[in-house]
Each structure stands twice: as C-alpha cells, then as structure tokens.
Write a structure and sequence with these properties.
Strand content: 15-25%
Strand order of the largest sheet: 8-5-4-3-2-1-10-9
Distance between the termini: 13 Å
Order of helices and strands: HEHEHHEHEHEEEHEHEHEHH
Low-confidence stretches: none
Number of strands: 10
Bound molecules: zinc ion
C-alpha cells in the first residue's frame, strides 16, 4: 500500500459484497479531494480517468500527478482507465503505470471484441494490471465515448462466455443504467448481475451510478457490483461549486478561496458516495484478504 493492483481492492469487496467507489477525476484538485474523502473514511478507493482527461493532460504528467498524491495516503488505491476503445491509448496508459483499463470494444461484434480483449488481457498481465471488459455499450455519451441509442443486450450466457474466453478480471454488464443524468427513473435489471455472477463469479462494475438511491446501490452491490463508477456526480459538484462561488462573490479575485470551495464540494460528494457503498472502514481489509 498505498498503490496496489486493483484486484487487491476488489477481491475482498466482491467476496464481502461491499462496493468500492471508482471516481472519475478531472484534475489534481478533484484527485486530492477524493483521496482525502476516502482517507478520512478509511475506505479503499479507485481513481479513474477518462480517455479525454488522459489526452488533455498527457499520460505521463497525469500519472506522475496521481503517483505523487497517492504515495502520500495511507489507504489502498488503484488507478483505472475508464472506457477506452483505442488500443494505442490502452498501451500508453499500461506503460505509464495504470493498474487497470476498461477496453471498451462494445462497438465491435462479440467475436472481434473477444479476440482483441484476449490480447489486451495478455498485455495488461505483463504490467501486473487488470482488465475490465464490456460487450454491451452503456447508454449515454461520457467524455466523447458511447452512444445515446440503446444498444444490443445479449443473453447472459453470451456475457459469461465472453468472460470465460477472455480472462478479464471485471465486467461491465448492461443493467439498465445510463451515463449522465436520468430524465426518468431507470428500469434496472439487477437480475442480470445475479445471473452473471452465478455463471461466472468475477467482480461486476456498475456504470451510470449517478442518481441511483441508497436502496438501488445496496441491492446491486449485494448481487456483486464491487466497483461502482461515479463520474457525472463529480462533474456536477465540480462545476456547480465554481458557479456558486462566482455568483456569490462577483467582485472577488481570490483563486485559493475559490479552489478551496470547489475542493470542499468534491470531497463532500465523494464522502457521501463512499458512505452509501459500504466501504468505509474497509481499508485495513485490503491486502490481508487478498494475500
Ligand atoms: Zn461507464
């Protein structure tokens, strides 16, 4: 610790059925805020970056920013690359030190997705990293990746075979959630999580979690969603905090005061979600359970 392979964080979470927050950060301020929130709750944490953020920072600068902050915390943490359809960027991030990648080949047919995911799993293994797989696209566009049209949902047997054939570590099933904000209550398919875990017991990943309530989170986590992605909630907290500060202080030009306000808002958002997922106090169980 503190930076550990993602399986050391998710193996015990999956076994004990609690959820680990996987929060998409956008810069060093949001990174620091979520690390502080998890530290205070003694919770393991996964930090995620979208491909867009990696491209705008540059992989090396982003990784060294992450590493400098992560090395200072006392909780187990991992760095994950969210939805990445681009093999070249998968390689760049694995080379730079990311602990886990989501190879998002959901646009490809299952056979070609399987073939390429097998290659990505082999590449990740050489780096001691894990791979999250996906065959059904999660509804909604997130940082330029995805589609607003509902995609094909395969029978769970197809997903289970994909998991088996590829050797992925974690899987993102289509369960009725969507990226972005819900305009109407989502029709969740929690049964699909249960069926998949029964067929092939690996950690499931909940995408599109922003806007679900405590009961929905708890139910999906109890069925095997060990990794719970949070992206939209961070964007809302981050942007609204800037807006609120500027509206309340129109004549002020005090960057540290504004950034402090944003930091506090992002940290509160992370604290609220980690508490909902049941991972508070679980930092000490990581490593002990995995080894
Ligand atoms: Zn997602």
């Amino acid at each position: 610790m503190p930076v550990v392979p993602i399986r050391e964080i998710l193996d015990p979470a999956f076994a004990e059925r609690y959820g680990v927050a996987a929060i998409n950060v956008v810069d060093d301020l949001s990174l620091d805020a979520v690390l502080q929130a998890a530290t205070e709750l003694e919770a393991p944490l996964i930090v995620q970056t979208s491909l867009k953020t990696v491209k705008s920072y540059g992989a090396k600068v982003l990784y060294s920013t992450w590493r400098a902050r992560a090395d200072e915390v006392a909780i187990p943490v991992s760095l994950h690359l969210d939805h990445c359809p681009d093999r070249e960027w998968i390689s760049i991030c694995l080379d730079a030190g990311w602990n886990s990648v989501l190879f998002d080949a959901s646009e490809l047919d299952v056979a070609e997705n399987t073939r390429q995911t097998i290659e990505v799993v082999a590449e990740a293994e050489r780096h001691g990293a894990q791979v999250e797989g996906e065959i059904e696209s999660v509804l909604g566009v997130e940082d330029g990746v995805g589609s607003d049209e509902a995609g094909l949902v395969h029978p769970v047997e197809v997903s289970a075979k994909f998991i088996e054939d590829t050797g992925i570590y974690s899987f993102a099933p289509a369960i009725g959630t969507a990226h972005g904000l819900y305009k109407a209550d989502p029709e969740l398919r929690p049964d699909r999580v249960t069926e998949l875990v029964a067929l092939h017991a690996i950690p499931m990943v909940l995408h599109g979690g922003t806007g679900l309530n405590q009961a929905q989170f708890s139910d999906l986590i109890s069925r095997g969603c060990a990794k719970v992605n949070i992206s939209t909630a961070l964007k809302i907290a981050f942007v609204d905090a800037h807006r609120d500060y500027l509206e309340a202080n129109p004549g002020k030009h005090d960057p540290p005061a504004m950034l402090g306000h944003v930091h506090a808002a992002v940290k509160q958002m992370a604290t609220d979600h980690i508490a909902m997922f049941g991972s508070a106090g679980k930092a000490g169980g990581v490593g002990a359970a995995a080894s």
